[in-house]
Amino acid sequence: MTTNATRPQSPAVRPRRSALLHPLALTGIAYTVSWTAGLSIGAPSPGMHDSGSSIVAQLRGHSGMMDLQFVLTEGLPAIGLVLICLGLARGAAGTRGARTLGAAGLAAALVSAVQCVLGLLLVSASAPGTVQALWQTTVRLDGAKMLALAVVGAVTAASASFPRFLRLLGGGLAVSLIASALAYGLLLPSLAWLAYPGGLLLLAFVTAAGIVLARARVGRSVS
């Protein structure tokens, strides 16, 4: 008679799988899911210099979609940025840039939360002048948030505490977001396309950072 014995899992496999279920890994993944869902809604996207009356007309009948988009792309991601950036700062503890990384991440999260609030106010406003002011403020704040996230990427790239691939992502993120931050901060619509590569790199960076931090935590608990 023969028996089929189940081969025990390798100790290296179990931590890797459990790391993906760690809160930090799930936070990084949820960040990308939230952003992707928000962008897929298909809500109106006024131009940087559109008049207040034009913006009001574009948003008419889409208030629910706009509210949901601001929550998914600014509100919920703000929470994710706090957790991931504080995790990165802790991972870089003992290095010169750790505090800078944490402060820049918290600044980006704060700006994102403010954008969410302003966006919800924008959707409920009806006066063209108010709507235009809120919209342009939200766009300019995007530039400020991009600069803060560029600092996060640059400090990560310069830290030997993280894997090479995450440092490369951080470096690419810093370069791309500095360029797009100028476009949004100065309301330059001809350069707004620069936000697309920066956005993709940001999603990849935050997701990867969450998984890297989770693996480090799980690895320490197992050893």
Task: Note down, in words, how this protein is organized.
- With 223 residues, the chain is mainly alpha-helical.
- It has one domain.
- The chain is built from 8 helices and no strands.
- The two termini are 39 Å apart.
- 42% of the residues are buried.
- The model is unreliable at 8-12 (pLDDT under 50).
Can you lay out the helices and strands and say which pair or pack?
Elements: H1 13-19, H2 23-39, H3 52-59, H4 63-91, H5 98-124, H6 128-158, H7 164-185, H8 195-222
Helix pairs in contact: 1-8, 2-4, 2-8, 3-6, 4-5, 4-8, 5-6, 6-7, 7-8
In short:
By secondary structure, the protein is mainly alpha-helical. The chain has helices at residues 13-19, 23-39, 52-59, 63-91, 98-124, 128-158, 164-185, 195-222. The model is unreliable at 8-12 (pLDDT under 50).
Number of strands: 0
Beta-strand portion reads under 5%
The proportion of residues forming helix, as a percent range, comes to: over 70%
Give the CA-CA distance, first to last residue. Answer: 39 Å
Number of helices: 8
The chain-level mean pLDDT equals 91
- Taking Cα atoms only, what radius of gyration do you get, to the nearest Å? 20 Å
Q: Flag low-confidence runs.
A: 8-12
SSE ordering = HHHHHHHH
Q: In total, how many domains does the architecture comprise? A: 1
Main sheet attributes: strand count, strand direction, barrel closure: none
Structural class: mainly alpha
| Silhouette | elongated
Main attributes of the structure:
transmembrane, mainly alpha, 223 residues
